[in-house]
Amino acid sequence: MDCSQTHRNLYPYLDRQIEPAKKKSFESHLGECPDCYGCYRFHFHLRDCLKKIYRHFELPPSVLRCLFKRVAGGPP
Amino acid sequence: MGKNDKSAGVKNQKADQFQALVAEHLDALYGFALSLTRNKAKAEDLVQESVLKAFRFFHQFERGTHIKAWLFKILKNTFLTDWRRDKRHPESLSMDDEESNFSFYVEAFRQSKASPQDYLPPESLHEQDMEQFFGDEIMKAMESLPMEFREVIFMCDVQGFAYADIAKILNIPIGTVRSRLARGRGMLQKHLWQYAQDRGILKRSA
Ligand SMILES: [Zn+2]
């Protein structure tokens, strides 16, 4: 796999949707090419930041209580 | 046991079963609702409305299938019903393929090669720096995206849904999921690139 193929497969790899046949050669290119590896690290961390931001949000407990009360058939 | 007691018992059992299944997905649903509405109060209402709807249709849920995807689909459809009722839709999909190919990293790499005296290589942006530099801007970048892109990025990057699940939730072909992800990610990175330029991130101090 060359650099441009590696770029094309970067997100399919991160998304765990890369074709199994391409996975090995993608990984071995990353092991040999610092430029592509840097690019991979960047995108990996960017996604991590995004995950952390949204994982931070929790449904407020008051909303949760009210919701389950309504599910159980009680007044809100 | 009277007839009423019996039916109340069955009802309680159904409610308990439902709660046990959905409880662990409520924060994810709330995150999804926030990414769609960009407003906390609206997101709370949307979660409540969707979960109550899911409970009403719980008998239609096939046991053993992906309940999180089922809940996401209900929430999206609930959101769409409200969204369509509200006729003001400022967002429209522009067709700009250039965005699909935009990469912050590649752009930064190009700059640092072209003028190494002015630009640091993008590898110098480490994990902690990224959080520190971009912080809220990543959220702002997400919120600036049209809904169609925001939702696929949220489902794929934050929630880790497979393309096929996203396609089912949104009722669109897998190819459209892929192209929306590419466009959305390009737009997000373009936003961050602009921010980095304005703030001088990756510029060498003189
Ligand atoms: Zn390479």
Could you explain the architecture of this structure?
Chain A has 76 residues and is mostly helical. Chain A has a single domain, classed as Arc Repressor Mutant, subunit A (Orthogonal Bundle), CATH 1.10.10. Chain B starts with a helix and ends in a 7-residue tail after the last helix. In chain B, helix 2 packs across helix 3, helix 9 packs across helix 11 and helix 10 packs across helix 11. The interface between A and B is large, with 35 and 45 residues. The complex binds zinc ion. The site of zinc ion has 6 residues of chain A, from helix 1 and helix 3.
Write the layout of secondary structure elements.
The complex is a heterodimer of chains A (76) and B (206).
Chain A: H1 3-14, H2 20-32, H3 34-55, H4 61-71
Chain B: H1 3-22, H2 26-37, H3 40-56, H4 67-85, H5 97-100, H6 104-114, H7 127-134, H8 136-144, H9 147-158, H10 163-170, H11 174-199
Helix pairs in contact in B: 2-3, 2-4, 2-9, 3-4, 4-10, 8-11, 9-11, 10-11
The complex binds zinc ion.
Straight-line distance between termini of chain A? 58 Å
H/E series of chain A, N to C? HHHH
Largest sheet report of chain A: none
Alpha-carbon Rg of chain A, integer: 21 Å
Report the C-alpha radius of gyration of chain B, rounded.
22 Å
**Structural class determined from secondary elements of chain B:** mainly alpha
Number of helices of chain B: 11
List unreliable stretches of 5+ residues of chain B. none
Largest sheet of chain B: none
Gross morphology of chain B is elongated
Strand count of chain B? 0
> What would you say the CATH architecture of chain A is?
Orthogonal Bundle
How many structural domains does the protein architecture of chain A include? 1
Write the CATH architecture name of the largest domain in chain B.
Answer: Orthogonal Bundle
Query: How many structural domains in the coordinates of chain B?
Result: 2
Strand content of chain B: under 5%
Share of residues in helices of chain A: over 70%
What general outline of chain A do the C-alpha atoms trace?
Answer: elongated
